[in-house]
Amino acid sequence: MKLISAIIRPFKLDDVREALSEVGVQGLTVTEVKGFGRQKGHTELYRGAEYVVDFLPKIKIEVALEDTVLEKALSAIETSARTGKIGDGKIFIQPLEQVLRIRTGESGESAL
Amino acid sequence: MKLISAIIRPFKLDDVREALSEVGVQGLTVTEVKGFGRQKGHTELYRGAEYVVDFLPKIKIEVALEDTVLEKALSAIETSARTGKIGDGKIFIQPLEQVLRIRTGESGESAL
Amino acid sequence: MKLISAIIRPFKLDDVREALSEVGVQGLTVTEVKGFGRQKGHTELYRGAEYVVDFLPKIKIEVALEDTVLEKALSAIETSARTGKIGDGKIFIQPLEQVLRIRTGESGESAL
Amino acid sequence: MFKRILYLVGIVAALSGLMAQANSDVQSDAFHDGLILLADNHADGGATLSEEVPVAMAEAEPALDSGDTAWMIMATILVIMMSIPGLALFYGGLVRAKNMLSVLMQVFVTVSLMSILWAIYGYSLAATEGPLNAIYGGFSALFLSGIDDTTMSGTIPEYVFMTFQMTFACITPALIVGAFAERIKFSAVLLFSALWLTFCYVPIWHMVWGGGFLSQLGAIDFAGGTVVHINAGVAALVGCILVGKRMGYGSEAMPPHNLPFTMIGASLLWVGWFGFNVGSELAADGTAGMVLANTQLATSAAVISWVMLEWFSKGKPTMLGAASGAIAGLVAITPACGSVGPMGAIILGLIAGVVCLWACTGLKSMFGYDDSLDVFGVHGVGGIVGAVGTGILMAPSFGGVGYDDGITMGGQTTTQIIAVLVTIIWTGIISVILYKIVDGIVGLRPSEEEEREGLDKTTHGENPYNTQP
Amino acid sequence: MFKRILYLVGIVAALSGLMAQANSDVQSDAFHDGLILLADNHADGGATLSEEVPVAMAEAEPALDSGDTAWMIMATILVIMMSIPGLALFYGGLVRAKNMLSVLMQVFVTVSLMSILWAIYGYSLAATEGPLNAIYGGFSALFLSGIDDTTMSGTIPEYVFMTFQMTFACITPALIVGAFAERIKFSAVLLFSALWLTFCYVPIWHMVWGGGFLSQLGAIDFAGGTVVHINAGVAALVGCILVGKRMGYGSEAMPPHNLPFTMIGASLLWVGWFGFNVGSELAADGTAGMVLANTQLATSAAVISWVMLEWFSKGKPTMLGAASGAIAGLVAITPACGSVGPMGAIILGLIAGVVCLWACTGLKSMFGYDDSLDVFGVHGVGGIVGAVGTGILMAPSFGGVGYDDGITMGGQTTTQIIAVLVTIIWTGIISVILYKIVDGIVGLRPSEEEEREGLDKTTHGENPYNTQP
Amino acid sequence: MFKRILYLVGIVAALSGLMAQANSDVQSDAFHDGLILLADNHADGGATLSEEVPVAMAEAEPALDSGDTAWMIMATILVIMMSIPGLALFYGGLVRAKNMLSVLMQVFVTVSLMSILWAIYGYSLAATEGPLNAIYGGFSALFLSGIDDTTMSGTIPEYVFMTFQMTFACITPALIVGAFAERIKFSAVLLFSALWLTFCYVPIWHMVWGGGFLSQLGAIDFAGGTVVHINAGVAALVGCILVGKRMGYGSEAMPPHNLPFTMIGASLLWVGWFGFNVGSELAADGTAGMVLANTQLATSAAVISWVMLEWFSKGKPTMLGAASGAIAGLVAITPACGSVGPMGAIILGLIAGVVCLWACTGLKSMFGYDDSLDVFGVHGVGGIVGAVGTGILMAPSFGGVGYDDGITMGGQTTTQIIAVLVTIIWTGIISVILYKIVDGIVGLRPSEEEEREGLDKTTHGENPYNTQP
Ligand SMILES: Nc1ncnc2c1ncn2[C@@H]1O[C@H](COP(=O)(O)OP(=O)(O)O)[C@@H](O)[C@H]1O
Ligand SMILES: Nc1ncnc2c1ncn2[C@@H]1O[C@H](COP(=O)(O)OP(=O)(O)O)[C@@H](O)[C@H]1O
Ligand SMILES: Nc1ncnc2c1ncn2[C@@H]1O[C@H](COP(=O)(O)OP(=O)(O)O)[C@@H](O)[C@H]1O
Question: How far is the CA of B110 from the centre of ligand 3 (A)?
């Protein structure tokens, strides 16, 4: 099993969730994060004092999935989250040793 | 060492923290997240417009621990976070290659 | 590739970001979290009712990076985030199997 | 009745001919005795001038009454509080966080700009006598010339009357911004407001309160059902259609970002509205007391009816429903508050709550326009309910003050409907023209990118909430 | 003194017999000259009727005073601002975010409902003369019949007096909701408020201000220490005990979710309370000026004493303490503000801050009830401090206005204590019955699941804050 | 002119000699007829006493006017609303979340403490006649002795005048806390406020409004440009320099944590300021009407000019700019509002917006002090613009009320400048001493650790927002 974490633009969240549902992903966890990268921030002005805001609002989506769905899920995210402009984000793939469903105690792929 | 991430119901946080303390876990990190899964959302009404809210508030607990405590910690979480209703959440177990304590520079299990 | 997650004191964020930039890290993702550990919380008072607040505000920084930068990045974080008092935080190092850049579809180290 | 229809035809004709001959149709026999009369006239809810002139003539110049003046200073201040922070928060809480400041800013700066324009030419064009007197006043008080600290308007200083009316001129254009909130250029808001004040607010004010032809017809609008609410509501409807829907409207959820702010705003509108309604009596007297009671009762009744209808139909009574009901009740009682009795006010409120809820849901989804904050549904429709309801509920059988000699319920109600239609037609047509002009000069709508990022960041370079460590 | 105890026994008897014979005990010799007198009576803080009747008789019908009317219109508006948004925010900021809207909604809709009930029957039963005149008024002003824009109440229009008193009837039941906040059904709040208005608020009003037996006894309650604060405080205490503790009370932390809102609420309560206290003079005169100064000074003093005690005993002066101190001071000065001098007001405020802090901490934890927002601790206890303190601090030696001829400090203080006890007993007993009735009809408490999820989502289908992208 | 310079020299001398002989220089020939006169005097913006004495003497004791009293009660309430919640929110929204409650608390408790000090000795020292009458009043009204509900001050009860002035004494020290917000000890704020009230506010009040030497010079300060704004602005500047910069100032971003709160605060300041300015007329009359109009127009104009300058120079018009412009306009019109006409008010507002924006940016960065919330830039500089502008814009050619017989524009303007300089010098010097005293007794600044963690947690043991589940 794998755990993928995708950093995406906030307004793409609904699209990505739908795209993932279509390839059979049933659950995911979302976190509001701030990203720093190549995408340029903007300037804010408070009584003439200018602040450059480098940390931009992003959304992190975490999905645990079976290896077999991985490719489909990755391309679902890539397609639905892409705008083509700098700042679209990244997908990180990590190994996942075990999953447990708290409600039932099930483990492994049946817990997803 | 392992890194466990548990997605739980927000009101179970105190119970889970206590259960983990009892099995010897000394530290943990908590994030407010939104979860999407089998648990049904609710409907909100704003001047007659209905919105279905699919993303439900959840808490993510991250704990780094020695392999020897793993089993006890897992069952502590399972027991304390369970209500038996859909939406109780998951536990993800990932490998953890190294831990450093920033204050002292210690690494490995002594850094936990 | 590795994924490092560092839990640090909030006011150290800018220092850490600068230190990482200096060793060549180009991107990172930041999350507001609450930490529980050895560091003592404080007491809050509401109409005479005292609450002990155990969960303290912390910042989690996640950075994906090539193995070659790992050492430099770790010491950059350690140096810039350290105050020497309890509660400075931890760094967790995990394996990272793959990275994709959503905008271009690039993968691996060139996606960082 | 026939004569009334003639007026209506006349005004439509006048409009098509771009006001050129509007004047000759109606101005004929009226004589307008300036500001003292104006004040009386306003207080009497637009009773025909012809009746009052002799009285006003006969009366000595009334002396300053410190009690009336004290109340009218406070009423003026209360109406300012309605706009800022009242209306600004009511609206601001309802948009998404990324557009919060843009809404606050649109209201705040519109209020400031309108104040200045009212002093420079608005008051003169609205409240003095002019060559086109059926529709517009004249230029004699440009830059407030002729007014000083001894000039009176009834029993209060003219400066107080002028400033009280200034606050109405401030809030009315500010009401409109709710319709196209979250997707309008800031420069467009300011330019449109200035034009709209000049070509819609001022003439309707003059027609209804300034001795223009609607006041001669006998239309009753105690505190601004037509002048303020229908007027703004129609401009809002036109605006949200011309500006177009918000990106994602209908597909994305756009819940209010901070309902407590909306509740504070609604409460301050409620509180401030007593300045608006009771202040329109221009005195601290028995009628003022009646208006006070009526305003509180109609508002409360509309809260109850809106909330109950929601509860029974959707299963949940909502805070936003209660707040919206309050505004609906306040709007509806505005034209009626000097003519109906307390039980009539309760009835009017109950009706307004139900009808406006329907207008914000059924009606809106029937036509599919995106009136972001339901300005038309609440102010336009609520204003119509109130204006027409005034004609009916002022009957003594409902506890109202009764009709003028020789006027029947049917007659008065027809007059009310005519005043409503004139306002709708005038403002409907002129607003379309003004939006087109504004679009041509500065453009109405920000870029897609700007709309998506939110106007706070892109237009104002600010972020409303910065809670990062 | 003996006579006073007799009254007390009388009222308890009356209660057990469900009010059947209360009438015969006390109504006997009093004659009550209707509303003009009522106003006077209220203004004089309940001086005995017998003295005033001749004066009132001798006087010609007083003419409308525009200054008094101007002030009373504003006072009315200020009291509305106390409830919405004042009280709503004060309470709302103190609950957890998931119950924010439920509290705002309970206050907002209660205010609306009470307004209508007051107009329909509350005012009549409170402020007219009736067959059970010791306790209740009559039916002559049902639906406000007999009132129009020429009816006077002293020097102000009766409509203004009626609406001013309406605002008191709105805020008093709304105060109670703080006691069982976060765990009450919305329908239960509305039903209880309506019943409580009818069976507790109206009779105590009539007893104290409407010519009922407490006013005949000579109890002084200038602006509502017993009628409003002790009355609401006792109902609150009963309520929080009967409804039971919040889930997790004592084990989970339940910190206020937004203290700035609480501070805004406290500030607007402070500001609006001048309408409450100074307005209770029903005129803009010298006494009004004294009440103004007293209100500001007592409140300030209570802020200082609450904060200082916290600082010395717990090491930290808190914002919530300052806000709570302000409310405690306001409550305590309410009955006293027409009788004490400025230095007496400062003393009363200092005492109120200390005593109420103890009531919200020591007393509450001693008995272990869960009065969520300390309605009893602040309003009940603060009201008692004020009512009893009035008897002492009105002495000329404290700078007060002094006692009526033949009344001693001991005598007046005893009378004050009797009025307090009557209120506690009456409302204590009746409230228990009303809560039971409400529990039987709609139920008091939501399900555990609903309470855990929060009332905003489960009862109102709304979320107060939606800041997601 | 020469005489004026003499006065200036005199006062500097007086200061160096620690006030010992200030008295002998100027007190000589003036006779001061107590409070009735005081009220007139204040209303006339400080016209010289010598002229007025005979008139006041000739007049019978004026009777209470209920309209004036109604207005002044409300004006008092409005000024309270300016501080709480107005100023508290305006400031609170601008700091970082971790210091939110500390700012709210500093304002709230300062207001409470000043109220009590004003009643105990402030009013007496400011508003009665004393042995050092050029600078200080006397002790005859200590503990408000001699005042009761029949004592009058012009046409209003003296209690009302005293309380109205109390609210000025509350807000002025509270203004200062913005300068060293986020890095000051709570105990230092309270101690400094108490000392500053006594040694800066009270004497300047007496000099300008209480028959002291500046009022004799003919300085015009209708509602407090020097007494309140320059006074507080200078103390603020001194304070932020002596306390030192915030940790991280210049390197870390310190954006406002909640601009909607700042907007609510600015709006309530705007609304409440009518109490401040119009209330300073102490009557509901024609001049009051003029002040009402002027206040609204200057404020609006300053909003427009600040926002436009930002828009043209930085590309974005900001909400904080609009709010700051409003305050700048309000400050500038404060001394001028009884002397200029509406068009003069607009001109003054336009100038104030531009100059204060420069003071908050250019001037501040030129000298590098950390005036956290720009108290000096807005109140100090805006007050100077207003005080000097009064001298010019009161000319009839600008629509103003004109000069007293024999006074030229140059003469009046010079007098205004002298009054400004006296205030700056007096408060500048005394404030340095007071800060040093406070630093010696309780210390000014919290520890670095406390400052970093935020004052809410470390000083007050509270957290403003608790939205965790
Ligand atoms: N090395 C990294 N480690 C963790 N997160 C990263 C890293 N690089 C980028 N990110 C995240 O991805 C987001 C987008 O990256 P950015 O460089 O701006 O554009 P792009 O994805 O188009 O290359 C950043 O805002 C940040 O949240
Ligand atoms: N595949 C997944 N990857 C990541 N998070 C998941 C996944 N499935 C579920 N979750 C998280 O677990 C929570 C509970 O899941 P849900 O399906 O609603 O109930 P249950 O845990 O009882 O099966 C979700 O709200 C989501 O946060
Ligand atoms: N075992 C752990 N797993 C996850 N996070 C931890 C763990 N131990 C500590 N942390 C995080 O590190 C932070 C600092 O730890 P703490 O024990 O307070 O001090 P120190 O880092 O100096 O040992 C905690 O607040 C928590 O967020």
Answer: 12
